[in-house]
């Protein structure tokens, strides 16, 4: 598992329900010999119940609100956070410093969701400031939200920083959610909460209105219980946004008709998947998970995959230890109203209210280090160039040399490989360890390869059907 410090350049957040395709009033209904349950229900299930005039959006929202009231005191998966909504919901990144601030407009992805018929039910909890405040921060903790809990094993980490999004989807407090990722924040919580996380190519989804870490790596993607639901959400949020220039180029990656056509149960047949055993499969083996992933490789082969084994990514040790340069307060200048307008203001707030922000326990060493810089200078430009070279000589070269469709790795341990190049990845449930803690399996590729990754992940999901509802073990 990646450490909390390596996940500090991440984010998480929004909660949503698509009103045109969700609803529910009771936990179970029988509809002309069709039994429908909200728990684990997919978008397709709910849409069918809508079409049969058996359920309404109001009933669905009421059901989820009851579940949130029943379970959120324990799980602490829902508060208000860092994807802007122009409504009564706060946008705080888990910090009291932004409580009461007013955003100028909906975030780009929120605007698209509302147009698609989404009901914004709430916002998810997270690791405060997207785990970019301190190297000693705890995954899933923020002063506003408290400590998020893994619904499978409450004492296990929920991972972060998009903890609350994964927790709440896993626990059936919401139909689908969004998370944000700079390095691991979608993939890691999805792995630990037995849900599907899709990290898109940087720029495929708009970051406008999202509290940033670094535009070079930040991306917004779905966290859902199934691959198909993740794809439906992805189709709703991709595309050009004039407030995020990165979406202009990335829009050319979007296939005609969207991504739904890649939901192919036979999508593994003929795919070339690369296996990087050192260090990823060795880490899994050291955790007692080696047999689990060896079994999955057998499954992939049976489904027609060409497995290219024992590959190496150049400079992998360096890649796994790089970190993003933060730009986490750029959005503060756009706020209509706020008591903080700069990184210095946030640092001062934390020092003024140490008990409120738990600064004495968490610290803010990353903020202090960022404040001591002069922005993007020669040293920072050299670091960015180094990331570019690591990507070109690492994953890009590996994929080209071996003509791979994707790389497959256990859990979210390869997140930095995808992060530094702005590459996409998807993670799906792969099993549970001896304590019942979920584990995922990741498939990653080059920019614009979402279609291939969806085919691979969906076919794997359909061949294995591993996910089960949470058990809330102590």
UniProtKB/TrEMBL annotation:
This is Amidase domain-containing protein. The keyword Signal applies. Residues 70-412 form the Amidase domain. Keywords: Signal. It comes from Gossypium raimondii. The lineage of its organism: Eukaryota, Viridiplantae, Streptophyta, Embryophyta, Tracheophyta. Residues 1-27 form the signal peptide. Gene3D superfamilies: Amidase signature (AS) domain (3.90.1300.10). It holds the Pfam family Amidase.
